[in-house]
Amino acid sequence: MSAPVAVGTVVPPHELDVDPEKMKVMAALLGDPNRIHFDSRLLEELGLDPRPVNQGPLNMGYLQTMLARWAGGRDRILSFQVRFLGNVLAGDRVRAEGTVTEVRADERGTIATCDVSLTVLGGAVALAGTAEVLVDPEPTQENDA
Length: 145
Prior knowledge:
Elements: E1 10-17, H1 20-30, H2 40-45, H3 56-71, E2 77-84, E3 93-106, E4 109-120, E5 125-137
Antiparallel strand pairs: 1-3, 2-5, 3-4, 4-5
């Protein structure tokens, strides 16, 4: 991170297309039997958009990827809480965004609290929440014994 982090700092957004093939792999990895993630016929029978619904963990991962790229690694994400507000469907384009709302220092270094959201472009916010990110770790002290 080049510039100091302050309240109002915008986390560089992460934008991507939701890949239906990756959704199928994630459903298999999670052992998720819910057919809304892979069965277009079921969705049509239910009167829904026939595009499969993306798994929640993938949607959260898009936000965490954005934070990790900004802060320098996934290990820098100290806390992460989101609410699911809507669905993300196969083929949607989404944007993960964040803004710093608080900055504080502790023994670990500089910690930024961020409001985060995942928005379906041309649609609604699908996830919203907060995260704490270690943005400027204190150098470790070596013991001279």
